[in-house]
Amino acid sequence: MAHAGKKIVVKTPLVEIDGDEMARVVWQMVKAKLLLPHLELPIDYYDLHITKRDETEDHVTIDSALAIKQYGVGVKCATITANAERVKEFNLKTAWPSPNATIRSVLDGTVFRKPILVKNIPPAVQSWKKPVTIGRHAYGDIYSAVEMVIPDAGKVELVYTAESGAKQTLKLHEFDGPGVVMGMHNLDNSIRSFARACVGYALSEGIELWFAAKDTISKKYHGHFRALFQDAVDAKKAEFEAKRISYRYMLIDDAAAQMMKHEGGMMLALMNYDGDVWSDLVAGGFGSLGLMTSVLVSPDGCYEYEAAHGTVRRHFLAHQKGEKTSTNAVASIFAWTGALAKRGELDKTPDVVEFARGLENATIATIEAGTMTKDLASMAGIPAAKAASTEEFIDAVGKRIA
Ligand code: NAP
Ligand code: MG
Fold first, then answer.
1. What backbone torsions phi and psi does residue 39 show, to the nearest 5 degrees?
2. I need a labelling partner for 47 at 20 to 30 A (CA). Which of 25, 220, 243, 300 fits?
């Protein structure tokens, strides 16, 4: 840890993306109490507070993604995804798109989500002994779909026009009354890089790899994912054998059933929407969304770290009324430590990596010693009245690294 008066120097600027509501409050506290006292930290700061996105017509979001492309490592606080309610609440010009979707579409890549295991928080699924890592494809499908509400009877077709002008047409549906349609897409390049990223992650961690989809129903779309995924696995066949790691393709419903009796310790690779749902399910199963880490890895080697949870609005409303909240800061702390450790690794500054790992260990040790927020207390058999407030927890971690 930092010696009196001497801070650890981070060489390259870290891209910091600030966010909204309670997540923003926790973020600020973590930075002020656990990082800045110990680090000389150059920061390239982007404020994605919903009002700032509105003021800049959302350019700030694109700028933040480009900054990650430039420097290679960023850390992001949870942000509000605008919807009709939020447009009213903040008097926005429009419902700006999800910042995460925008950043992902600039960087491409795969989101890996891994729960933090703590000894005194038993997982909801008794058989789970090791973390289940979710590899979520972060491009396309419903996240960049086009949709249309069909007002009345009529025909909807899919038309592909090749550059040569040749057309292929497919009837989507013949409506005899009102309905709704959606068209979604993905790209071979993106699917291949997703598959390579998952294969690389499983090999580097030495864990089994599962990929699950529904190719019995979606023979072309899901079938295409399955085939390209298999290519990426075949390309590393020798390494899978050398490390005695297996790869399994499974139907998503089968994977769901198997997961409930498995000990964990595998990486489950999933398409975008499945990954969205499963990462929250796995987070809930391992204790709390507050214990779930998340990193977006782009094919050209950029990293964006964040907590998997959202802005925790309900707690923010209490905070605004002056009430003490017991919001779990662990995933926010690990977003920072993940980014700092990666920055240190790329900069070849081992003291930065060591600081990050030390802060992670201090965080886990604090919980294991019985100081934790309300979301975890009930699971650890600690009465809610004894749960720490957000600030008390952060201060307890701070004492361990002082
Ligand atoms: P959320 O912020 O994740 O919170 C949902 C509930 O989960 C909370 O009310 C709380 O439960 C519990 N929770 C989540 N994080 C927690 C933590 N750190 N400590 C303790 N409890 C925690 O999801 P949401 O309420 O659905 O979404 C709120 C906003 O966040 C939305 O505007 C959404 O767009 C945005 N969002 C952003 C991201 C992102 O930027 N990555 C991700 C998801 C959602 P209790 O109320 O029971 O205590
Ligand atoms: Mg989600």
1. -125, 145
2. 300
